[in-house]
Amino acid sequence: LDCEEVQVLQFEVRAVDAGEPPLCGNATVQLFVLDENDNAPAFSRGEYRARLREDAPPGTAVCRLRATDPDLGANGEVRYAINRRQSDPDGYFAVEERSGVLRLRRPLDREARALHRLVVEARDGGSQPEGGLSAQAFVRIEIEDINDNQPVFEQDIYVTSISSHTQPGTEVINVVATDRDSGIFEVVSYKICSGDPHGKFFIDPQFGIIRTKKLLDHEAQTVFAEKQQEYTLHIAAEDCGSPPLTSLLMNLKIRFLLNINDNSPSFVSSPLSYVMEDVEVGFLVHHIIAKDPDEGRNGQVTYHILSGNENKAFVLDKITGLLTTAQFLDREVQERYSLTVIALDDGSPALSATQVLTITVLDVNDETPVFLKQLYETAVHENRDPGEFIIRVEAVDRDAGLNSLLQYEILPGAGYEKFKMNLDSGELLTAASLDRETQEVFTIKGSPSRSSTAQLHLTVLDENDHSPLFAKTQYQISVTEDLEEGSAILDLSASDEDAGLNGEVMYSLIDGTYGAFAIDSVTGSIITTKALDRETKSQYTFRAVASDCSTHFPRSTTVRVVVHVDDVNDNDPVFLQNPIRVFVPAETAVNETVATVRAEDVDLGSNGAIVFNLMMAETVFQIDVKTGDIILREPLDSKDFSTQLLVTASDQGIAPRTATAVVIFFTEEQEEVISFSHSLYEASVPENSAAGRH
């Protein structure tokens, strides 16, 4: 019964007694079908798509989801909810439980997230199964951009210098502003607002490249330099919104140089240096070198530490660039120094370059940590999720203070990347799922922060995670049809990388053997189980199954096996007519074909190719060995002529098989009478005689 199709069934019942005459009574029966929760809610669509402006206020309706449930009562009442475990964990959206209307809960920011994917669940109110039945739909919400971000310059201050010999069109500096909006709202154009009263510069509105507009005359520049040695330009960056948003760069300084100093120093020394923590004060740590190709004072470089040397641990000779220690170093107090060094030429104005020099202080340790055990042994199951706890190792250090605080690490070795160690506690965890078939035993060396080592011997326990694998993707074999029953025709082989019962393979056959083949479940050898007959079936296609012997969720693999049955000469030719009666007119001309015999052989090739011959030497007639045409070679001597020819049909197999037919010739004036030589023939045949025995 299905309550969703018919809720009430009504029929008539009649009761009849056995009296004479019989009497009867009628009753109407109404059967009410009660509903069960056998239908889950169904959404009208598997995926809903919507677009929402990023300035939409909370409470805005995004879309309405519709799910129906044909059940009755509470079983058909649908409630909607967002699956927070799979989507929208930050609660940007909410769905009305009854109506399915999806609404915005929080303000959006397209620049933070342009696409929201929600998983909405519809669940009915049925009590069985527990919690009711449910369905899911996906909601894809694209956030439409609005022009709510103004362009932002990459720097607050731009400073550059140009020579008084600068030609028109020379690039001075490139200012860049970016806008976090998208599309046309992120396209920025530039213009000079103020600070260039003499019109000496112009800016590319698309790329923000500032170039000289006029030739700067050296003598005029000299006079000008006494009054004003730099320009401070105000640059506006404007997006293409409507209305557009604008940012103003207030501090772009362009300085004019009377003496050309157009090359900044360039560092050629390494930005990395290492020093032991027990060196003496005054020890040479690093030689800082910067080159400036300018001549004279413009190419003379001095060195200074801008930052990173607050505790005065180092001294830098500003002329030679030699960096030495100014006090004893303690790696446990500070292991690494990042000094910002500036190389400054002596030009006016001076050009400079900076480099961050990283100095690593190497530790000196006079006590060796000692592990509590030199060899740890344990085992862990394969295929477990990363993070599986394996073992905890422990070491001690007789040093005091920071030198006694140990950190543990795994030394590089075979398979070490599959594990990770808690630096402080010494707990060893898996960093990846292990596969026993790839590597069963791991020997891991671990050490604390300095020199002591210990070994961990870890054995990975097998799980049935590999299916048997055949040596080939398909097997094909050809056998002759006279093969004896029980003959082995093919040996299959499958391997399984698992261990124990999980790796032991058993074989079986399915599909299309027609009872002709069987397989040894242990060795995989396929044998015939009955005689084959190519003329009945010339090809068998079936599947072989290799299954492991796991006691818990065994695994299996199938492979296609094709057996071609080759022909042997096991069929005699068969005449299409036997005997053959032929009427030959007495006046038939010589060399005329008077009859044709036909025979068939169901074997293939030479086994089925037939040649014809006459059993007895004959001068009147001759037969064509290929076509079976019988040709008259001499004139018939009378009108009452008659004779019988014995014709053989032989195949061309290695051991040819032959059939015989009788051809009876007579003239039209003669009536041929056929009769047996005996009225009764008797013979005895032994039981179990082979087919075809004479």
TrEMBL record:
User: Start and end of every Cadherin domain?
Assistant: 1-43, 44-153, 154-267, 275-371, 372-470, 471-575, 576-688
Pfam families according to UniProt = Cadherin (PF00028)
Q: Is Disulfide bond among the key words of this record?
A: yes
Localization (cell): Membrane
Q: Which GO terms describe its cellular component?
A: plasma membrane
Single annotated GO MF: calcium ion binding
| Chief place of localization | membrane
Sorted UniProt keywords = Calcium, Cell adhesion, Disulfide bond, EGF-like domain, Glycoprotein, Membrane, Repeat, Signal, Transmembrane, Transmembrane helix
Return the InterPro entries for the record. Answer: Cadherin-like_dom, Cadherin-like_sf, Cadherin_CS
Q: Name one GO biological process term.
A: homophilic cell adhesion via plasma membrane adhesion molecules
- Descriptive protein name: PCD23 protein
